[in-house]
Amino acid sequence: MSKKDALSSVSSNLNSVNVRDKLLRLVQYGSKIEKFSSADNLKILRAISTNLGDSRRAFRLWKWLESVDSIRKINSDDTLALFLAFSRHGFLASYYTCDNLVWCAERGIWKPTNFDRLKKITYTLWTLAIFTNILLTLRSYKLVLDSLATTEANRKKLVQRRKDGDNIDSIDKESKDLFHKIETLRAKQKELIQSLIRDVLDFAIPYNLVNGGNLIDGNKIGFIGVITSIMGLFAVW
């Protein structure tokens, strides 16, 4: 790839909302790692973390509509996967709605009767959204494994048919299609593993907030956020 093409690729990716959000998230959680910072820099790091977090939440205004639209588009032949997908997007839509309300309350746009309770509900919905996505990913992984096993078995049958002297042209075409399907399933398998790792790590962030933010040290939360942000960047880049 030439320098011009590389620059165009970077520019195109940076125009993506997801990429910009992941970059902001990377810096936000990186600024939470205070272990190696001097006392003079702590105030700056905390201001960066707070301001970037606030900016990202502003970008998420009306994002609940995206989750509602995703619910409308859910399609699966597996009942459990269908239920988990509905639950995940339902929790996400509820979380984004509550997060918007928290943001508005912090801006003084409205005053909830119990702000602390609203925040805890928001963090709980975030936790449930990640948890159901972990379950959905595990179910999807099982379905991919089953499909891989079936496809591999069909491929072996074709190999045997070819040895038996069946229509070679027809078998070669079927074999090519099966090989392409196997490659696609293996790529999906890898994608699901990466998603599962990200979600398992990210689960600690809202769970910590639900419990008052005292279960896990801020530096560890920062490291977790940096790791999952980098993984997220690779996924969307």
Which keywords apply here?
mainly alpha
Describe the structure.
This protein is 82% helix and 0% strand. The protein contains 9 helices and no strands. Helix 2 runs antiparallel to helix 9, helix 5 packs antiparallel against helix 6 (115-163) and helix 7 packs antiparallel against helix 9 (218-236). The longest helix has 49 residues, at 115-163. It is elongated. The protein starts with a helix and ends with a helix. The mean pLDDT is 86.
Total beta-strand segments: 0
Poorly predicted runs: none
Shape, principal axes of CA atoms: elongated
Structural class: mainly alpha
Architecture blueprint of SSEs:
Elements: H1 3-14, H2 17-30, H3 39-59, H4 64-73, H5 79-106, H6 115-163, H7 168-202, H8 204-210, H9 218-236
Helix pairs in contact: 2-3, 2-9, 4-5, 5-6, 6-7, 6-8, 7-9
Brief account:
The chain is an all-alpha fold and 237 residues long.
